From TrEMBL:
Keywords: Deoxyribonucleotide synthesis, Iron, Metal-binding, Oxidoreductase. One of its GO terms (biological process) is deoxyribonucleotide biosynthetic process. Pfam families: Ribonuc_red_sm. It comes from Candidatus Nanosynbacter featherlites. NCBIfam families: PRK09614.1-5. The lineage of its organism: Bacteria, Candidatus Saccharimonadota, Candidatus Saccharimonadia, Candidatus Nanosynbacterales, Candidatus Nanosynbacteraceae. The keyword Repeat does not apply. Binds 2 iron ions per subunit. InterPro entries: Ferritin-like_SF, RNR-like, RNR_small, RNR_small_fam. Its cofactor is Fe cation. This is Ribonucleoside-diphosphate reductase subunit beta.
């Protein structure tokens, strides 16, 4: 008969029998986030895109190219996030309340994927053209290499989560997918997609991106909570050397994103060019660094203050000294 008691030790571990009992809840932040995620549930067909179709015809070729490139990047990467969660995060998180949240997050990533499918199917897009938007460009290949490098670690059947190196591998991959892909690269695309609304265009697409971003804010909150909990429970990870490695991983990813944005906006579009987007990327990166307890790197102003509602900053913590309680979510508000 299976033993459904709580696993011994911390939030990291492995074994199908572990983490099958919800009570007593060990990580209230995870359960609170699950309940908030359920309350945020939405479906793409709640938003009609008829007016946006008319707006699309008003766009210049460069603007259409920018929109297509954003969609072509975000759409498949929602499923890539799901692979990272299903194979690289969920199997190593041994708390029922955290597994509940990860299950809801995986559904949300699928819902985001279907949201972009809804846009692709509604607009006069050629699917092959959409997915070929960045094909052959070194900047996109470099981003893919970064993602695959960390996904391969997650998928390695020999990953031993009980060793120091195994824990470091887990943290690196979690940062690569949660902080970098979801917290920086995705926000770059969201900003370009939402920029049209500033000119009273594609307002309903903007609404869908608002809803996606609201989900992503919770994903970030969960990921940072998970990082802080792992560090709190595994003090052997709390070294200056490892902290610098994590910081450099994030900064390396920023350089990849900056090159990609130059390819995405080679000529710029009305009110938006690669320098503008990259300043936003650097601003958001500083916010992510500060949220993890690091010093900011770029110290640049936010050029897109109209994105403020999508940029809710989490309470400041220290990557190696604070506990996860700084991130508890109050679902009664």
């Amino acid at each position: 008969m299976a033993d459904y008691t709580h696993p011994k030790g911390g939030i990291l571990g492995s074994g199908l029998r572990d983490g099958l009992s919800l009570h007593p809840i060990r990580y209230p932040w995870a359960y609170d986030l699950y309940n908030q995620a359920v309350a945020n549930t939405w479906f793409p067909n709640e938003v009609q895109l008829v007016q946006d179709l008319a707006d699309f015809e008003k766009l210049s070729d460069e603007e259409k190219h920018a929109l297509k490139t954003v969609i072509s990047y975000l759409n498949p990467n929602e499923l890539l996030i799901n692979k990272s969660l299903a194979f690289g995060i969920y199997p190593y998180v041994n708390a029922a309340e955290a597994q509940l949240y990860l299950s809801k997050q995986m559904w949300e990533e699928a819902n985001h994927f279907m949201t972009f499918e809804y846009i692709i199917e509604t607009f006069p897009f050629d699917r092959e053209e959409i997915y070929a938007a960045g094909f052959g460009k070194k900047s996109l290949a470099d981003k893919a290499d970064f993602q695959n490098k960390h996904l391969d670690v997650m998928l390695d059947p020999n990953l031993d989560i009980y060793t120091l190196e195994g824990k470091k591998d887990f943290v690196r991959s979690l940062v690569a997918y949660n902080i970098v892909l979801e917290g920086i690269w995705f926000y770059s695309g969201f900003m370009v997609g939402m920029s049209f609304r500033q000119r009273n265009l594609l307002r309903n697409v903007g609404t869908l991106l608002d809803w996606i971003t609201k989900d992503e804010n919770l994903h970030l909150t969960f990921g940072i909570n998970l990082l802080l909990t792992i560090l709190d429970e595994n003090p052997e990870l709390q070294t200056q050397e490892f902290a610098e490695e994590i910081r450099n991983l994030i900064l390396q990813a920023v350089e990849l994103e900056k090159e990609y944005n130059k390819d995405m906006l080679p000529k710029g579009i009305l009110g938006l060019n690669a320098d503008y987007v990259n300043q936003y990327v650097m601003h958001m990166t500083d916010r992510r660094l500060v949220e993890l307890g690091f010093e900011p790197e770029y110290n640049v102003a936010n050029p897109a203050k109209w994105m403020a509602t999508a940029n809710d900053t989490l309470e400041l913590v220290n990557f190696f000294e604070s506990t996860n309680t700084s991130y508890e979510v109050n679902t009664t508000k």
